[in-house]
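User: Hi! I'm a student and our assignment asks us to look at how structure tokens line up with a sequence. Could you show me two examples?

Assistant: Happy to help. In each example below, the sequence comes first and the structure tokens follow. Example one:
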Amino acid sequence: MNFYPEGKNSQLSASFDSVEEMKNAMINNEICEARVLLCDRDHNLHLDLGAARGFIPRTEGAVGIEEGKVRDIALISKVNKQVCFSITGLERDIYGNTIAILSRRAVQQRCIDEYLSKLTEGDIIDARVTHLEKFGAFIDIGAGINALIPIDMLSVSRIVHPAERLCEGQNIKVVLRKKEPEKMTFSLKELLGSWEENASYFSPGETVTGVVRSIEEYGVFVELMPNLAGLAEPQDNLFVGQQVAVYVKSVIPSKMKIKLVIVETFNEIAQPQPLTYFINDSHIDFWRYSPEESSKEIFTDFRQ
């Protein structure tokens, strides 16, 4: 069974027309999703399921909550967001209204047992960006289970903050870089193409747009694509993150260099652009960034 990041698969969204429908979903152990309306003072989650109110007890809110491995902020932050669950029981309140007792933890445990535990390094999966920190991007890798992409694994081109590359809520593809007993670390850069694949989009004599990523005494590094940057001559009044128009002077594969000339600057801060993936397989064993003729080797070996 496929386990998706929460909110990615609209077919899981549940709005039941009757209690009978809910009973069938409980009997079949179906995985559903609905939006959290409220996180109460005891950190229980309340959902509107159409035919009844849904209730996720705090300890059923996520794997690790009861053991103290996951903090309650993981529940508080789910208000007004889609969460997955299975129905574990139906009860009535003091007014005779039906309440569906739900478990998000049970779905997450199934995701771990049936899906995540079977992943190997080099596997490519769907993920959703949940939040961004200076050191990396947190992603939902299935059923609301979080993992990290360190900032240096977001792209070959260096950035100051993940917000320069990704947006919260963005659906992306990632590759499993390292699997440990209690943690999985993912990477994005291997899916964004080699130097040659990126450089093939540019030819000497063209003028294209880019983003200033680094300003050094000897020149300005301008990002053309997430995995490709060129070097322009020093220029005053530039700032990191600035959009610029650059003239492509030369493309040199043996040195992995693209020489640029900045021809115009803009005051706008560049916003994250849609990602271009160069790998469509579900697994990779080895990725080489550097061209064969380059003396410098840059690669990732997922078999090690």
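Example two works the same way, sequence first and then tokens:
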Amino acid sequence: MGKDMNRIKAADIELVDKLVAVNRVTKVTKGGRTFSFSAIVVVGNENGIVGHGLGKAKEVVEAIAKGIDDAKKNLIKVPLNKGTVPHMQKGKFSGARVMLRPAAEGTGVIAGGAMRAVLESVGVHNVLAKSQGSSNPHNVVKATIIALSQMRDAVQVAKQRGVDLDKVFNG
């Protein structure tokens, strides 16, 4: 699965945005301190499409708007199976490692912080997730997106193996 194979365009999709984190950064100059903001935003249609973006600006609202625009340029399609992920998957980005496992109906989204925002945006209702290593929101969001982009449903597995769908389940 190439990185660009499951990318999609933002046109004609109703996307909901979630703010993951806002960070105030300071640049010290000869004239004093200059404050600016960086915002991490996740967008999704809550039905299998999700993207993340980073926006930086002098004002918080402007940083969020830039983050949303960036997120719309980085959308991926994720196969979902009855409101959960199709199989267990691990993702890693820099120091952040995440693990996603399918869960039974009624479990809910068992995930914290940045992972929760990504999983809710993609439309997962039942999942067991664990974030290990770094808790940096940038890296956790990217690790979660990587794990979701590696998800394959039964149809994709059958096509890749060149066998019928029945053979995937019955061996």
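Here is something you could point out in your write-up. Residues 60-72 form the longest helix (13 residues).
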